[in-house]
From TrEMBL:
It is found in: Secreted. Residues 187-272 form the Expansin-like CBD domain. Keywords: Secreted, Signal. It comes from Ananas comosus. This is Expansin-B3-like. GO terms for cellular component: extracellular region.
Length: 278
């Protein structure tokens, strides 16, 4: 039986409204997805546990280094705001250089305000395996979660439950640097890579020689340990060297052309003119 005209009109209006609502919902979902994109804003907060090690106001390791190979992490730009990551965070070294925000509300001395830390070391056993995500922080970074003047009180708590989120790294005024490691020679070349804006982590590194039999060809390097990558060559490497980096988190690629000169020396640092924020 046919519907009366006024009911047909009501049905048409209903379906038009329904389609408009669906369209609006889809539009909002798309906008929300973009807003939460890691590269644009911090991702959602999750639970983690934290401890601290080293001197109460130090950078963690006694030598101001750590399992990522970074040096002088007590000095800018790290400024002791560092942490070890458990296996979930350290990722067999590929998590080195990643940046996080942490905050605590589980202790009376907590400020509830976020602090930004960089992964510079590893904690792969003991208390660091008691939770899916654990940070063993420097004394300085642990204390930074406290209300002013209550840093020691918070450190005396020992172990805390906190919230954490991944954030882009930011090194104002710095471009990516390559430190040629001790022991490097014409057939063994190792570099420490640091100060990558954005993701901060690396999935792969390739080297291109400027001369010799493989000039102009990208050769994969392999992770030696932490943030140190190496190339064992079957011939004497000839510079200058270009380095291609691909990040772990978002897969972004960047090339530092001819960044390491032909007369490179071990224990020297060569600074590029590029970064992921450029």
């Amino acid at each position: 039986m046919a519907l009366p005209l006024h009911k047909q009109a009501s049905s048409i209006v209903y379906y038009i409204a329904l389609l408009a609502l669906i369209s609006l919902f889809n539009s909002c979902s798309c906008s929300e997805y973009k807003r939460l994109n890691y590269s644009d804003a911090p991702s959602s907060w999750g639970p983690a546990s934290v401890t601290w090690y080293g001197a109460p106001t130090g950078a963690g390791p006694d030598d101001n280094g750590g399992g990522c190979g970074f040096k002088n992490v007590n000095l800018p730009p790290f400024s002791s705001m560092t942490a070890c990551g458990n296996p979930t965070i350290f990722k067999s070294g590929k998590g080195c250089g990643a940046c996080y925000q942490v905050k605590c509300t589980s202790h009376p001395a907590c400020s509830g305000k976020p602090s930004t830390i960089t992964i510079t070391d590893a904690c792969l056993d003991g208390v660091c395996l008691d939770a899916p995500v654990h940070f063993d922080m420097s004394g300085t970074s642990f204390g930074s979660m406290a209300q002013p003047g209550r840093e020691d009180e918070l450190r005396h708590a020992g172990k805390l439950q906190i919230q954490y989120t991944r954030v882009p790294c930011n090194y104002p005024g710095l471009n990516i640097a390559f430190h040629v490691e001790e022991g490097s020679n014409p057939v063994y070349f190792a570099i420490l890579i640091e100060y990558e804006d954005g993701d901060g982590d690396l999935a792969s590194v390739d080297l291109m020689e400027g001369a010799g039999p493989t000039a102009g060809t990208w050769t994969p390097m392999r992770e030696s340990w932490g943030a140190i990558w190496r190339l064992d060559s079957d011939h004497a490497l000839q510079g200058p060297f270009s380095i291609r980096l691909s990040t772990l988190t978002s897969g972004k690629t960047l090339v530092a052309s001819n960044v390491i000169p032909a007369d490179w020396q071990p224990l020297s640092t060569y600074r590029s003119i590029v970064n992921y924020s450029n």
